[in-house]
Amino acid sequence: MDQTIIKFPDFDFATGELLLINKPYKWTSFDVVGKIRNSLKPLKLKVGHAGTLDPLATGLLIICTGKLTKQIDTFQAEEKEYTGTMVLGATTASFDLETAIDSEFPFKHLTDEQIQDATSTFKGDIEQYPPAHSAVKVNGERLYVKARLGEEVELRKRYVTVSEFEITRIALPEVDFRIICSKGTYIRSLVSDFGKKLDNGAYLSKLTRTRSGQFLLQNAYEVADLVQYLRQKREET
């Protein structure tokens, strides 16, 4: 059986490297940063990511090292592209699979035309509220910490831009989509609002970031492959 040979460049982590990583399912963005930072020991370098992905999301995560960490805000500000799947006919408190279904609705009456037409509401400059179960900080505390404790959460609306919102498959209750949007867009919130637009419910069941600015997921490394390479290089030296 043929095995793909992965070619890595001669990295210069101290000067600064931009690494494209395919974030695994259920890993936090900080898990990826920590894994790479540990693989670079005993070098003591700054390592950071440009744009958080939820643990249940996968796809492109930009990691910067060394002096390139100063440019993280620039990379983070660029538009993003996502593909994903929403489930109509139900809602969850977290707007995704992190929490259990809390409400159910009939959905078989929904037509393909209704679903396609509903996307127009969410194109252009829109306002949305972040999910209560999110990493947004309010008064220095993450919203998800308060939400998991059952405390009241103050949600503040934000303005974002959705330049493309395409429905790519309808197989009720599942609906696949592709979205291009600005920094700070919560796809979970958009999906929840999409369900409300249909007088129904919806939650996010799958999400993958396929692009960030000019950088593509198809050019990303798998974490395990990169970590193995870095450890081998460390042993050689």
Labels describing this entry:
single chain; alpha+beta; Pseudouridine synthase; 2 domains; two-stranded antiparallel sheet; 14 strands; elongated
Account of the 3D structure:
The chain is α+β, with helices and mostly antiparallel strands and 237 residues long. The chain has 2 domains: 18-77 and 214-236, Pseudouridine synthase (2-Layer Sandwich), CATH 3.30.2350.10; 80-212, Pseudouridine synthase (2-Layer Sandwich). 23% of the residues lie in helices and 33% in strands. The chain is built from 6 helices and 14 strands. It has helices at residues 29-39, 72-76, 112-118, 143-148, 187-197, 223-236; strands spanning 18-23, 47-49, 58-65, 80-88, 90-92, 101-104, 124-128, 137-138, 141-142, 158-171, 174-181, 202-212, 215-216, 221-222. Strands 1, 2, 3, 4, 7, 10, 11, 12, 13 and 14 form a 10-stranded mixed sheet that branches. It has a two-stranded antiparallel ribbon with strand order 5-6. A two-stranded antiparallel sheet has the order 8-9. A hairpin with an 8-residue loop joins β5 (90-92) and β6 (101-104). α1 (29-39) runs parallel beside α6 (223-236). The model has no long low-confidence stretch (mean pLDDT 88).
